[in-house]
Amino acid sequence: MNMSSGYVTAPNQYVTVDGVRLAYRSIGSNSNVPPLVLFHHFTATMDDWDSALIDGLAKQRRVIILGNPGIGASGGSAPDSVTEMARFSAGFIDALDLKSVDVMGYSIGGAVAQQVATDRPELLRKIILAGSGPRGGEGIANLQTVISTGFAQAEQMNVHPKVALFFTTTTAGITAGNEFVKRINNHTVDVEEAASQEAMGAQAKALITWGMSPSNFEELANIKQPVLIVNGKQDLIIPTVNSYVLYQHLANARLVLYPESGHGALFQFHESFVAEVNTFLDGSN
């Protein structure tokens, strides 16, 4: 693909996993390093990725964007458990015949990445967890209240709901949020429809159940791959303390927290985040 065109023109491609046709997009190329596979946030389509972030990541490696089952251009029904989402994600890597990949899981995608690392550790070389938390993590089960509050606040502020949910209410946060909104959902080919109510309900059940279930600290301790954990100072959706808990329980992890930011810190500071990712993925450990 012509790199100069960027993510917004990356067409959909398709692969079948367990009879379900999954959509994905691929941008960038570098045969000298493993591809980076992205697992997205709650109810997100591939169009919801920040194009500037994707373009930045793709300058040094192939980036593969997975469309979750039952969301956007992907077929099937949205799974209502992280375990099932992880099974499809691992099957996706298998279907592309990728022997070793790096993965970045954002939000519920971070839970999926943890589960893939537990179930299929041989697939993963390095792991990035952004805006994520362990199973049973503090505040994760409060998803519905947080989202309803965020939507109400967004209406009062006259901003996109993601501005209120992913960013702080400071001037810098609101400015960053408004800029982020301009960089999503601007695909020029293969535009996707937003998640259905059914898919939203299934993924909400998956994330809330993850938050209400017993901890996965024992499984985390057995993850030996290097892990980069990233979050903002004040994450409303998966409280920032969960990033520190992940850091405590993973054997080989580093933790990066960005100032005056929330769940969308990786978008607010996308240039710094890309540099951090490149240093982590290209480093020796």
From TrEMBL:
It comes from Paraburkholderia bryophila. SUPFAM superfamilies: alpha/beta-Hydrolases. Residues 34-267 form the AB hydrolase-1 domain. This is Pimeloyl-ACP methyl ester carboxylesterase. It comes from the Bacteria. Pfam families: Abhydrolase_1 (PF00561).
